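Sample A.
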Amino acid sequence: MSSDVVKRGLAFIEWLDRLGNVNRRWLVKSEDATDPRYGCIPTERPIEEAVRKGLLVIDKPPGPTSHEVVAWIKRMFNVERAGHGGTLEPNP
């Protein structure tokens, strides 16, 4: 694995830390080769793969049912399988 890949991966992890207001120092103990078939740095993932394997957070408005929202998402992104992992009901 090239040191460039390690630097880009570490930059992504540090970016996540900043989003969460976490201040820590990372130490790379070893650099091992990773087969690209098993993943990539999330910010470098092609949009098609992100849609196919990703998670979409929706702030569902009052009115449509959870089933309707899932159906809309399937049509919008042209995917066969989609679902929800919890209630999509609005906050009271």
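Sample B, a different protein:
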Amino acid sequence: MFILLIIIHVAVCIALIMIVLLQTGKGADMGAAFGGGSSQTLFGSTGASTFLSKATTGAAILFMVTSLSLAYLSRHRTGDESVVTGTPAPVQTQAAPGSTAPPATDSGETQPAKTTE
């Protein structure tokens, strides 16, 4: 299931990139370069949505759904894939009661005891 979702996600990513690159910009006509043909609206005139704009919307929604699904599944995934699960916890030794030396670390090194004068 996880591998299939990754394959779908990569395919949607490539499709989304291709769809966006195929679209023409709002100022792609030659008249827009010289200030002609534009509307007085803030973002230009909007016509009927084309097939590419609908495909972009659909691919973006599918991309978000697969992204959220992969994030959820990877968080709740159980298995032996983790490197950390087989590692034992570090062992700390405690100093003997009444001793002034600090406890030794897991590497076996001790720090010198502080003397008060």
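Observation for Sample B: The first helix runs from residue 2 to 22.
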